[in-house]
Amino acid sequence: MTGTAPTAAVTGATGFIGTHLCGRLLADGWTIRGLCRPGSDRGDRRAPLEWTVGDITDRAALESLVDGVDAVFHLAGVGLWRADPETVHRVNREGTRAVLEACRSRSVGRLVFTSTAGTRRVTGQEPAWSSAAVADETDVADPVGAYQSSKAAAERLVDSYVDSGGDAVTVHPTAVFGPGDERFTVRLLELALDPKRLAAPPGGGSLVGVSDVVDGTLAALEEGGAGEHYLLAGDNLTYGAMTARVASHADGHPPRFRVPAAAIRAAGPVAGAVGRVTGVRVFPFDRDMARLATRHLFYSSRKAHEELGYTYDPLEAHLPETLAWYRSSG
Ligand SMILES: NC(=O)c1ccc[n+]([C@@H]2O[C@H](COP(=O)([O-])OP(=O)(O)OC[C@H]3O[C@@H](n4cnc5c(N)ncnc54)[C@H](OP(=O)(O)O)[C@@H]3O)[C@@H](O)[C@H]2O)c1
């Protein structure tokens, strides 16, 4: 690294994980250049960043963002909860292509790309995949939906960047939990704490605290092998167990019943048809996503542990700060 204060370029700096990553980098003495859009909410606490304004496909903005930096953290991305499939591909795949082209054209240090655990999955026929089998980095799965396929395509672009001489590592967080996340975290807390919610969804996933994901991302920068992929996972829990553990910590009312998997799977084709006819997306449901939602999507981060020294804290360790944020933000 050059000089006394290393410089990082961060795409997605205004997002949930990006905000936590920037907070840690600033505390560690980094100078940060963040990419934001004209309408992005930069928030007061993001003031110490040097901002470059532009879209993730804006090549000129990206070249200025990454020029001469010691590290590039590429987190900008979008899912079907927020955008149509075309936009998801444009931002996730073409945005990654633009970031890599900018890196190729400038002098940059290592790039750490934040993909998703969703590109990995235990494969095989039901009931094998509905059991508690645990996936690792080698379990590359057929993508389901635009989000996973765009992330898988972006991963291939990053791998090619390394094959052609670039330095990059890919991290794959599972479901990230922590202060500032209006989606998964809020849904889980509502499910666990609202006495009116009587039923938890079937299936389960790997829940990881955002501070652990930040640790893993920084460890990938320092210790990861070029071209390697690292799952950053946490506790593997059924949704029923997640809500029960949150409720027991917070003295809430966990849902007493589980929605039958068959009901979710049956809803998928109907919601998909509604979406096609009305143009209104009923996320996350089409037939394939509905099937996926009822599975146990469990992961191992053994590789990250062995090669990066990655560890994670249990759900309960992340709850005090997360609950304080949730309660204060109403
Ligand atoms: N959260 C999770 O559970 C999770 C799990 C696995 C992987 N990931 C991945 O981790 C990354 C960060 O996730 P997150 O939860 O922090 O997401 P987030 O809160 O939705 O933040 C997304 C970020 O991407 C930026 N962005 C979106 N479209 C853009 C565009 N066209 N041009 C420039 N910037 C754009 C957003 O900027 P604006 O502020 O302008 O909207 C925001 O900074 C994503 O790539 C996501 O796929 C997240």
Automatic annotation (TrEMBL):
Domain NAD-dependent epimerase/dehydratase: start-end pairs: 9-232
Stored InterPro entries: Epimerase_deHydtase, NAD(P)-bd_dom_sf, NAD(P)-dependent_oxidoreduct
Pfam families registered for this protein in UniProt: Epimerase (PF01370)
Domain of life where this protein originates: Archaea
Protein name per UniProt: NAD-dependent epimerase/dehydratase family protein
Annotated source species: Natronoglomus mannanivorans
